[in-house]
Amino acid sequence: MEFRTKIDIPKFEFGISHKDRCLFIGSCFAENIGNKLSETKIPTSVNPTGILYNPLSICKSIKNALSYRKYSANDVFLSGGMWNSFDFHSRFSNVEKAKCIESINSANEMLKCQLETASVMFVTFGTAYVYELAETGKIVCNCHKQPEKLFNRRLLPVSEIVELWTECIKVLEEANPHLRIVFTVSPIRHWRDGAHQNQISKSTLHLAINELNTKFGNTDYFPAYEIQMDELRDYRFYAADMVHPSETAVQYIWERFGEAFFTEQTKSAITRIGKITAAANHRPLNPQSEEHRSFCRRNLDEIEHLKMEFVGIDFSEEEGKLANTEW
Fold this sequence. Notes:
Blueprint: E1 22-26, H1 28-39, E2 44-46, H2 55-66, E3 77-79, E4 82-84, H3 97-117, E5 120-125, E6 129-133, E7 139-140, E8 151-155, H4 158-175, E9 180-185, H5 195-215, E10 219-221, H6 224-231, H7 247-261, H8 264-281, H9 290-309, H10 316-322
Parallel strand pairs: 1-2, 1-5, 5-9, 9-10
Antiparallel strand pairs: 3-4, 6-7, 6-8
Helix pairs in contact: 2-3, 2-4, 4-5, 8-9, 8-10
């Protein structure tokens, strides 16, 4: 007997292999899955401009990158001894104004390159609520712990998300005609919004994505939200805060992701690469033993085989660790 409901993931018209370049952009859940894909050695970039939660901020970041907007001293502000930008995550904040601006512009350039060369872009919407600067009406990507009175908070209507993303997708098509876009809704609950408001927010995102997918032939949807809510509807699949998915849940969603996008050849390659990574991180009791040296030689040989089969994969880190033995 089945004691749970399993989400049926429709077959995608494309797959992901080591020949593809992937870009993940959006909420912190994008980082959970994007980082796991990066570990497989499939070329992957994860949030080059930092974590972004709402559809408008993500859209804004994409447009700014493709137009290669140059940020200047007028675009940053000083708070608590740190220079920040309302358009960027706090990881770009710096005690030095020049370094803050430099890192922002470098990230913008990196995102532009990724958008123009990616095969697949995964976009994760976290919330339909946005914060606007009360003085200007400008939507911020990050409030940087500024006083609440500086902002107005509002719920985006479906129509506004669809309108802006329709324009955004057209801009992306011009920059990269072969790009596939896969939308997801983050299963992380924004509990500070309240249970009811969180449901309204997530529903708004679902409706907007559904409308976009009916308008475009190069967009899809991966049901990460549904997998967490329906297949894993138990608090044992949540972290200690009872809001974020647990490591087990992320691993399970990652496995369903692989089922949806990886060919059998890709799955086999990922398994072999995983063994190499584990071998490189292995700490032997006696690094100078003949047994360990033989172990390293076998894995270095396997790396050479993989490099011939999958041209372009970077094993420099693993090779360095495995070769760091006096033969």
